[in-house]
Every structure is written in C-alpha cells, then in structure tokens.
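Board notes, transcribed. Complex of a protein with flavin-adenine dinucleotide.
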Amino acid sequence: MTTALATAAPKGGAWLLEGTAHDTVFTPERMNDEHKMMARTTSDFALNEVIPVLDRLENKEWALSKALVHRCGELGLMGTDTPEEYGGLDLDKASSLIVAENIAKAASFTVTFGAMTGLSIMPLLLFGNDAQRRKYLPKLISGEWAGAYALSESGSGSDALGARARAVRRDDGSYVLNGEKMWISNASFADLIIVFAKVDGEHFTAFIVERTFPGVSSGKEEHKLGIHGSSTAPIILQDAIVPAENVLGEIGKGHKVAFEVLNYGRFKLGAMCSGGAKAVIGEAAKYASTRKQFGVSISTFGAIKHKLGEMTLRTYGVESMMYRLAGLIEEAKAAGTGSHAQNLRDALEEFASESSIAKVAGSEVIDYVIDENVQIHGGNGFVTDYPAERHYRDARVNRIFEGTNEINRLLIPGILIKRAVKGELKLIPAAMALLDEVMSPALAEPPGDGTLEAEQAAVVAFRKVALLILGAAMQKYMQKISDEQEVLMHVADIMIDAYTAESSVLRALDADARRLPNAVLHVDAARAIVSDAAARIEANAKSALAAMADGDMLRTQLAALRRVLKVTPVNTVTIRRALADATVERGSYIFG
Ligand SMILES: Cc1cc2nc3c(=O)[nH]c(=O)nc-3n(C[C@H](O)[C@H](O)[C@H](O)COP(=O)(O)OP(=O)(O)OC[C@H]3O[C@@H](n4cnc5c(N)ncnc54)[C@H](O)[C@@H]3O)c2cc1C
C-alpha cells in the first residue's frame, strides 16, 4: 500500500518557498481499497463496540478499557506503523491517519488509543534497541499490554525538561527512580510506562518501566472536564527499580525521545480532530434537518446554513492538509536510506513544523465544530440526552496536551527559523529576494478566470506574505526573535492559514482535474477557504508589521503588503449555503 506520489524526497518547510503540483499531493479521494477497509474496520469498532459501552468506561471500568485495547490489537489497529518482525503491519502513514480519524468516533476511548499507539508504541519503535522492541512491541501491538507515557509533572508541563523525577545508577547497573508524574493517560491500567527522569538529577533520560517493577504505582484518578472514559492519574515512582537494559535510547538524550514522539503524536492528534469534526458534522446535519421551529426545519434558516457550511469548510481545510502531510511523511520515509526507525525519525523531524500546524489547526477546528453543534442543538445541546455536550467537554483537552497550542504556535515558525539559521532551508535568501521584488514591483498579470486560477495566485501571495513577515521579524530581532512571541504567533497564524488554503486548493484542483462527481463542491470549498483566509492573513500581517515598524517604514511595508495580497473576495454566502444543503441532504460530511 503506498501513498508516495512524488519522486524526490520532500523537505519540510519547502512549501513556503516553492509551489506544489496538485497531482503530487495525497488526498482523501486517492484512498485505495485497503485504506477504505481500514477506515471501515476502525469506524465499525468505534461505533459498534465502544460507543455502546461508553457509560461503563465513563464509570472507570478500566478492565473494559483493557479489553477494548486488546480488541484493537485483534483488529490490527495498533500496528500500522510497526514492521511485521515486531508484530505490526508496516502500512503507510495514510493508514495511520485513517485509523486515527476513525477511532475519533470512539469518544474518550480515543485518548486511550492515542496513548497506546502514539505515546507507547512509538517511543519503542523509534528509539528501542532490537531486544527491547522484540520484548515489548508485540505485547503492545496485540493489546495484551496497555501502555502509557509519563513525561509531565505538576511543576513541568510545557517545560518538560524541567522534570524533577530522578534516576540514580546502582552498582549492578540498574536504576532507582523517584518522582511523581502528573496527568498520565492510561495510568490506572497501563502495564508498561515510558518514564522520563534525570539521571543524577542532570541527564534527562527515557526508561521503559513495567508496572510490576518494585516501587511503581498509580495515584487517584483526576476529576476532569471531559474524556471521563479515559484514565488520567499520576504515576508514582518510589524507589522504583528499573533494570539497566530498560534505558530507552541514550542516557541524557531523553529529550530526543520525548520530542520526536510528540512530532508524530501531533500529526495523529490532528487526524483525530479532523475525524471527530467530520463525525460531528453528520450529527449536526441530521439534527438540523429533523428539528422544526416556526413550522419548518431549522436547516432551512440562513443562520444555520452558515454554521453547517462553515463547519464543512473548516473541516475540509484541515482534512486536506492532514492527507497531504501523510503523503509527505510517507514519501520522506520511503526516500530514506537508513533503518526503518531512522527513516521514520528523520521523516517526522523533517515535517515537525507541519505536524504542529496540523495539531493547532485540527484542535481549533474541532472546537469550532463542536461549539456550533451545541448551538444547532439549542437546549438539547446542553443536556446529556444528546452527545453534543459530551463532545464539547471531551474536545477541549486537544488544545492542551501534545504540547499546548501556544507552544505549538511557537514551534511552527521556530523550527523553520532554526533550519534557516543552519543553512538547511533557504528562507533568508528567499525572503531577501522577495523584499526586493515587492519594493520594486513589476506589473503583475492579473490571474485568469479559469477554475481556481485566482485562488492559485492567492496562495502564492499567502506564501509570500508568510515569508515577508517571517523575514522581516528575523531581520529585526535576530537572535532575540524567540522573545517576540506575539509576532511569532501572528506568523504562525499566517502559516496555518496559508498551508491550509494551499492544501485545499491543491485537493480541489485534483478533484477537478479527475472530474470527480462532487468536484464543483470541492472547488467552491477551496474558493471560500481562500477568500476567508485572505482577510485573516491580512489582519495578522498588519498587526505583525505594526509591532515591528512605525512611521514611513510601516507605511512602506503596508503598501508592499497591499501589492502582494490582492485577493478579491468571493460570495461565500452562496458557497456556504450550497455546502450546507448538500450536507443536510446527505446527512453527513460530504467530502472524504
Ligand atoms: C487529560 C490530560 C491527559 C494528559 N496526558 C498526558 C500523558 O499521557 N502524558 C504526559 O506526559 N502528559 C500528559 N498530560 C499533560 C499535558 O501534556 C500538559 O498538561 C501540557 O503539556 C501543558 O502543561 P501544563 O499543564 O503544566 O501547563 P503549563 O505548561 O503550566 O502552561 C500553562 C499555560 O502557559 C502557557 N505557556 C507555558 N509555557 C509557555 C511558553 N514558553 N511560552 C508561551 N506560553 C507558555 C501554556 O501554553 C498554557 O496556556 C495530559 C494532560 C491532560 C489534561
């Protein structure tokens, strides 16, 4: 099964510097039969085997969580990333994305599953030695064991490297671990925990800890806003004895394990959010078509059409980006010449900035979608008879874990800045050339009126704006740029909008070129996404420029911005109506 469509190894951040051909991009419409089967298997499991027992999970029946983990193993849902020799299926990244999107229908069990595949299997796969992988991966992938990942502490969440948990080496080579890890998903029933602690209080290191090791226990379950069916509790290490062979990776290199794993976790979380949003749109559409007020179905009201249309648009944007990214990670991995683990690590690192974009965009789109779903349900959205209120509570955590959205927003440009400084990404020369171009502009040909021609010109302009603002910030603040978080947040927001809009246009162009039956709706969605993104990008760019310059300099820069960003708004009201009507007619999300 392959999703690799391009020939050369793709580079993270390159999308800012050069255009992309639509036929090199992976889209949901390019799913093959195996992908579709994976989607069905996962979706059926979530809807038929998890949702009917959700009350019991929410009552903290953890034996049931473990049984469901085991069932995921039987269905092959947890082995998509892992080679067969360790009990996996070694499928492409699109398959992992598809499983993540569909498991999102399993309410809070999604978090249990994510802590298994993203946070327990991944560290072993990426950093374990052969003996560790052989010993532990088959147990986790088959669901015989449940896993957890214990990085956070009460005093160190975002600042994960500030952990206080300590490890001291004993004469026989084993380690004694002491400390308390907070908010650990699956803590109450995990058999294996990836624990981070500082050897001699200094060298941040990952350890593979079995629950049965002496001195390992979990604390009381947290009382949470949502995801009540997911275990969240402290992991307590009280003179816990961990054998020497259970050091994961190198002593003092735990940060590599932690961050690399989170890169993939962010990609998968983006997928879970996009899958969750799609499912909720179906609920909203069904409710809106059956609920009557003033003698008619509420789906006939423009205000409700606006919501359904906007929910669909935003989800289309994030979904287009997620599939594009899955294809890119797969291509980068396939082009690697090292071991399976090395190639995967390199590919994930290559696309770390894009994975942060996926995490932020996904978690914010699902929050928008579930909020509007509550609104469409009115009073019924606020009571427990309908799932709308549960979605609302469950989804909020997505902006907090896997790196808060603030931390991820800082990473989006931050990763590219670091690469530019090292000369790995030609951001600085490109920004300088662009500065010359906008200061002495040649008369640009207006775009033609062919399908999405204006939108293609607009996404070129979006990329230029992102580069201009990023270049200006790097020039002004130099090494102190990381102190200018507000400007970096504006840059991140521009990049999120630009990447989402470009991914949507590429997907719609592909749908149009292949004459898909609903190509018109794809094209409409891309047009509206670009039109709305232009306004937000302009506002973010203006705020960033005004923070960096004033007087004549600011006026010159704003004039340059106007020259670059010439996007004529389209009639998004009719587009949203068309999308809403199609959604109501189908009773579900209309794309993907
Ligand atoms: C339900 C749930 C499950 C979880 N599961 C796990 C798990 O399985 N394993 C695990 O290890 N952890 C887990 N966590 C912990 C989670 O990863 C942390 O809560 C998260 O990283 C944020 O850390 P914090 O709570 O300490 O917030 P803080 O780091 O204190 O952040 C508070 C606020 O300050 C902002 N902030 C912090 N630093 C900066 C900065 N440098 N610049 C700008 N803003 C900043 C944050 O964005 C946030 O808005 C879980 C948390 C929850 C709620």
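The chain has a mean pLDDT of 95. The chain has four domains: 14-146, 149-252, 255-406, 421-586.
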